[in-house]
Design goal:
This protein has 135 residues and is mainly α. Helices cover 68% and strands 7% of the residues. A two-stranded antiparallel sheet has the order 1-2.
Length: 135
C-alpha cells in the first residue's frame, strides 16, 4: 500500500512522519495558545535570576572578610529592614494590579504577534507564495 507519509524506523517500531504542511490557522492558533506559556516561562526565568542575584549580593555583603563583625551585623539589620519594606510594598491583588498585569501581558502578546508577522513576511519573501500549498 502506498502512502503519502514517510516512515521513520527505529529498533522495533515504525513512526509515520506527515509530509504535509499544517494548515496556517492551526499553526497560528497553536502559537497564540503558547503565548501564556512563554510569558510564564520568561517570568519564572526572571524570578530565578533575581533570586540568585539577591542571594549572591547578600552573601557578599554579610560575609565580607574586610568588614568587622559589627559592620556585618549592621548590614544584616539593614537587609532585614529592606526585606520588610519590600514585603510591605508588595502589590495587592485587586482591580488596579489586575489591570496593570493585563496591560503588560497585552503589550508582550502584541510584540510577539509583530515578531510572528515579520517572520511570516520574511518566509513569504524567501519561499514565495504557494510553498505550503494552501491556496
Amino acid at each position: 500500500m502506498h502512502t503519502s507519509q514517510h516512515m521513520l524506523h527505529f529498533t522495533n517500531t515504525t513512526h509515520p512522519i506527515p509530509t504535509h504542511t499544517p494548515h496556517p490557522l492551526t499553526h497560528k492558533a497553536m502559537e497564540e495558545a503558547a503565548v501564556p506559556l512563554m510569558l510564564d516561562a520568561m517570568w519564572a526565568a526572571n524570578v530565578v535570576d533575581i533570586e540568585n542575584t539577591l542571594k549572591r549580593v547578600c552573601r557578599n555583603v554579610l560575609q565580607d572578610p574586610s568588614a568587622d563583625k559589627d559592620v556585618r551585623k549592621a548590614r544584616a539589620a539593614a537587609l532585614k529592614e529592606l526585606g520588610r519594606i519590600f514585603t510591605a510594598a508588595e502589590p495587592k491583588q485587586g482591580p488596579a494590579n489586575t489591570s496593570r498585569n493585563k496591560e503588560a501581558r497585552e503589550h508582550i502578546e502584541e510584540a510577539l504577534r509583530k515578531m510572528q508577522a515579520k517572520r511570516e513576511e520574511e518566509d513569504e519573501a524567501m519561499y514565495g507564495g504557494g510553498a505550503g500549498g494552501h491556496g
